[in-house]
Specification:
By secondary structure, the chain is α+β, with helices and mostly antiparallel strands. The protein is built from 11 helices and 26 strands. Among the domains are: 195 residues, Sandwich (Immunoglobulin-like); 127 residues, Neutral Protease Domain 2 (Neutral Protease, domain 2, Orthogonal Bundle), CATH 1.10.390. The longest helix is centred in the last third of the chain and has 19 residues. It comes from Streptomyces fodineus.
């Protein structure tokens, strides 16, 4: 996921690859468009977990197929400590000859699997569900995989993420690698797909999910709610809210449909905050272009997560962010803009690999602070100067922005360190200093336009920046993105990094919320 740090108010794959042209209407990531052939296991070999070789999460994703769509049906039993009954149907193109299909799935029991309507054998290997169809699947074929399973909201030790248990139901927090703790999937952002959710819950509950509603059918004591996305989505951005909630509706720019999901008892108290969303969307559109999706809204969860999360079209927030009196008004608004800006940077344009996550968080931090500068007179330069002083320490602790260190053992989301928040925003500041504000603003618009509904890499960003600037920027950006030490800041020869010996130690998921901000808590 993508963390948006908060103030605390009280104190590798070895596989050979062969390329295949893109075969679906939406733009697919190169990692998934390149089919792995020689490292796919033959049916006679023992089942084993696979992956697409992501440097930070080597067993995430699976080679050999390209998902076009998911259809996820969930039945909520009326209590959030019991498994949900579920059926997940995956439609995909094969990109290699397959005797087996690996899916990411690690929290729930599997009752049966069908491939193309026929029963298939299945077993578990690591965090993979390994499916053996009754016939080999040939490269370039369309296939449908149906898994009947449970989805357990109570996680085992070391399995953070997935379902979030709220005071009145459930929500999802799947970033970075936890969608497969909810439903079987190809759990890597490089394989985006369309989603349909059918969620059955007892009458009296409200269900909201990514995308637009496609009906609610009441049958006896339960109602089945259906939602469909209009744009492809990474599995880590999936969201389903089940609770005794109120849905507040309003209109955004260009007639955009907005809906917020809040605890019924809190609707009146939080309405002044939610009413700010249309203006915030208009402000973002003035910076980078039209909002990229079919709807937007805020999901306020009565839960203690320690973060906010940019799930596509329905960002997840802790309710306490809006009701805790110690949080300054400007700060809450800037956090709202942070998650909103992710709809462009991270959701519409998704990272090709998790090492590219700085493109998500650096941009979200950038627009969060730019909004605070323009609306609360908190200068961007002050925050960037503070970040520059800390940058060498952050690089030593967490790696450079575009080459983050692997997550800490047992803490997979610990990749969300300061180096990919303020450290990455510092890269953008240096770039703006180097090429000038007009060129930088053209680059930002071109980035989200060029890669909309797709994935992109750090190399793509460097290439586009060079094109917009009219000169090769690879040498300039190399040190900022990959260097162990922070390069000199253009235009600020007086800025100096702080010595590593003065570091206060590793703080995990944090980002200084402006100059002089109190020590923040985690956000995505």
């Amino acid at each position: 996921m993508l963390l948006t740090p908060r103030i605390n108010p009280r104190v590798p794959s070895q596989c050979q690859t062969r390329s295949r042209p893109r075969i679906s209407w939406h733009r697919k990531a190169a990692l998934l468009a390149s089919a792995v052939s020689v490292c796919l296991l033959a049916a006679a070999a023992p089942p084993a977990p696979l992956g697409i070789g992501d440097r930070l999460f080597p067993f995430l994703g699976n080679p050999g197929y390209d998902v076009a769509s998911y259809d996820v049906s969930l039945t909520y039993p009326g209590t959030n400590d019991k498994p949900l009954k579920a059926v997940t149907t995956i439609n995909a193109w094969t990109t290699a000859d397959l005797d087996r299909i690996n899916l990411d799935f690690a929290r729930g029991s599997v009752q049966s699997v069908e491939v193309d309507g026929r029963p298939a054998d299945f077993t578990s290997a690591g965090e993979d569900l390994v499916v053996t169809p009754d016939h080999p699947l040939r490269e370039g074929s369309w296939t449908r995989i149906t898994v009947r399973h449970t989805s357990d909201p109570v996680g085992a030790k070391g399995q953070d993420g997935g379902w979030v248990r709220t005071s009145d139901g459930l929500a999802m927090a799947n970033q970075a690698d936890a969608a497969h703790l909810v439903f079987p999937c190809n759990d890597h952002p490089s394989d985006k797909a369309m989603f349909t959710f059918h969620v059955t819950a007892p009458n009296g509950y409200t269900v909201v999910a990514n995308g637009l509603p496609a009906g609610a059918v009441r049958a006896g004591r339960a109602t089945t709610w259906t939602y469909r996305t209009q744009h492809p989505m990474a599995s880590e951005l999936a969201q389903v809210s089940i609770g005794r909630s109120a849905v507040l509706r309003r209109e955004g720019p260009h007639g955009l449909s907005l809906r917020d999901v809040v605890p019924g008892s809190a609707a009146k108290a939080v309405e002044p905050w939610l009413a700010k969303t249309p203006e915030q969307i208009a402000w973002m559109e003035s910076k980078v272009g039209r909002y990229p999706f079919e709807t937007y809204g805020v999901l306020m969860a009565q839960a203690s997560t320690g973060f906010e999360l940019e799930t596509q079209t329905l960002s997840l927030f802790e309710k306490d962010l809006f009701t805790e009196p110690a949080y300054p008004k400007w700060y809450i608004e800037s956090i709202m803009v942070h998650e909103l800006s992710h709809q462009w940077f991270g959701d519409s344009v998704s990272p090709r690999t998790w090492s590219d996550v700085w493109l998500n968080e650096g941009h979200a931090t950038w627009y969060e602070q730019l909004y605070a500068e323009e609306h609360a007179h908190r200068p961007m330069e002050d925050r960037m100067k503070a970040a520059y002083r800390a940058s060498d320490r952050w690089r030593a602790a967490g790696g450079p922005p575009a080459l983050p260190k692997a997550p800490d053992p047992g803490q997979k989301i610990s990749i969300f360190r300061p180096n990919i928040y303020d450290g990455a925003a510092l890269v953008l500041y240096a770039l703006r200093q180097e090429i000038g504000r007009p060129a930088f603003e053209r680059l930002e618009r071109a980035w989200v336009r060029t890669h909309r509904d797709s994935t992109a890499t750090t190399a793509d960003f460097v290439e586009l920046a060079s094109t917009v600037a009219g000169r090769d920027l690879s040498g300039f950006l190399q040190g900022w993105l990959y260097g162990e030490k922070t390069p000199p800041m253009p235009g600020h020869p007086d800025w100096k990094p702080q010595a590593a010996a003065k570091s206060a130690g590793h703080q995990g998921r944090r980002s200084a919320r402006g100059a002089g901000a109190a020590r923040p808590r985690g956000t995505r």
